Structures are given as structure tokens and as C-alpha cells.
Amino acid sequence: MPTPHDFFLDTINRKIDMDGVPKSQPYQCVDLFKYWLNKYYGVPGGKSMCPKTGYAQDIWTCFDQLGLGQYFDKVPTNQMVDGDWAIWNWGARSCPQSHVAMFRKDNGNGTGIFLGQNQSGKTYVSQDNIYYSGMFGGLRPKMYHQPINTSEKVDQILHKGSKVQIPGTFEVVDINVKENTALVRINGKDYWISSTPLKEV
């Protein structure tokens, strides 16, 4: 399963043009977004992603029209994670003509680190600090949370509430019949886990 860092390594410091537009400076922020879609989903690089205004803001405002729901889920700015694509509106503080870039990390000061092209005065792909101000939100790639190829296994990211299978045999130290949980000892440490999937041996 490819990761956001793989994409960073593939694109950093490159000049990427997917459509030859505009002729005066064809290395636009939307080209990097198109490259990602082409690389991982085979979407033709010439497909317009800015049908309304000609600028990156259309990726957000024309989301349904562009059929992007099959590749992304919209998320609020404050919930973005590494690999989400951020979209800025026209007139944004750091991106007055709108912008699209991949979110990498929050700086905790109203800015984040973003992988993008044609940003911070650079025409190539770079990773820069950009203000969140003026951002619509983020697009979370479904490929990082479900397989592109349905025969692949999901690379699950564990979180609170995740259900996991633990192979092995462990000593039951205590049980809670009401909660249907068992306190088991693993490598000298005790853990409360649901007793439902446990098989007595």
C-alpha cells in the first residue's frame, strides 16, 4: 500500500505538468493533484479539475460534478491527517488565487506543512509552511483506508475502539462477567480485553 511519504519521495523538487496549461507556466498546483490521481487511480491527466473558474478552488466546489467522491471523503481542516489534500478558496492569505496541496503536518501556530507545486514562490514541487486561513477543508484519500485492489488486505490504522485478533495463549488473571471481559497477562503486563473472541484452551 503506497503512503504519503512515498508520494513525497516520488515528487519532491520535480516539475510536473499533466495538461500543458497554461503555456506560460504549465507547472501548476493542480498538476500535482492530477498526477496523484493518475498514478494511483489511472485518471487521465488531461481531465479538467477546474471546470467552473479555472482555479484549484473548483476541486472543492465542483467535488460532486467531478466525481471525486469515489476517491476522497471531505474532512474539516482541523481533522486533516498526513496525506489529505487541502483546498484553499480564492483570496486565501497564503494562496490568493486558491490552491491545492497535500497536508503533511500541523505546526501548531495556524500553519501546516504542505507538499505542493507552484507554492511559496516556487514552480517545482516543494514542502512548505502555509497558513490554514481561507481553506475550505481537506479531501481524505480512500486509498489510505481501503484497498484500491479489492483483493488486497486493508492496512488498518489502529485507534481507540479498534478490534484486533491476538494470536497466542495467555493466562486469565481475572474476569468481569458483567462486562464480559477478561484480564489477561501478556509478557508480564495485564490487559483487559473482551472475552467474546477468546477460546479456552
The helix-and-strand class reads: mainly beta
Tally of individual helices: 3
Shape: elongated
Using the CA coordinates, give the radius of gyration.
22 Å
Unreliably modeled segments:
147-160
**Using DSSP, what is the number of strands?**
9
Q: Biggest sheet: strands, sense, closure?
A: 6 strands, antiparallel
Structural write-up:
- Helices cover 12% and strands 32% of the residues.
- With 201 residues, the protein is mainly beta.
- The strands form 2 sheets. It has a 6-stranded antiparallel beta sheet. A 3-stranded antiparallel beta sheet has the order 7-8-9, with no helix packed on it.
- The longest helix is centred in the first third of the chain and has 13 residues.
- The relative contact order is 0.15.
- About 7% of the residues have low confidence.
Record the SSE blueprint.
Elements: H1 4-11, H2 29-41, H3 58-61, E1 72-75, E2 85-90, E3 97-106, E4 111-119, E5 122-131, E6 135-141, E7 171-176, E8 181-186, E9 189-194
Antiparallel strand pairs: 1-6, 2-3, 2-6, 3-4, 4-5, 7-8, 8-9
Which keywords apply here?
201 residues; mainly beta; 3 helices; elongated
Short structural summary:
With 201 residues, this protein is mainly beta. The protein is 12% helix and 32% strand.
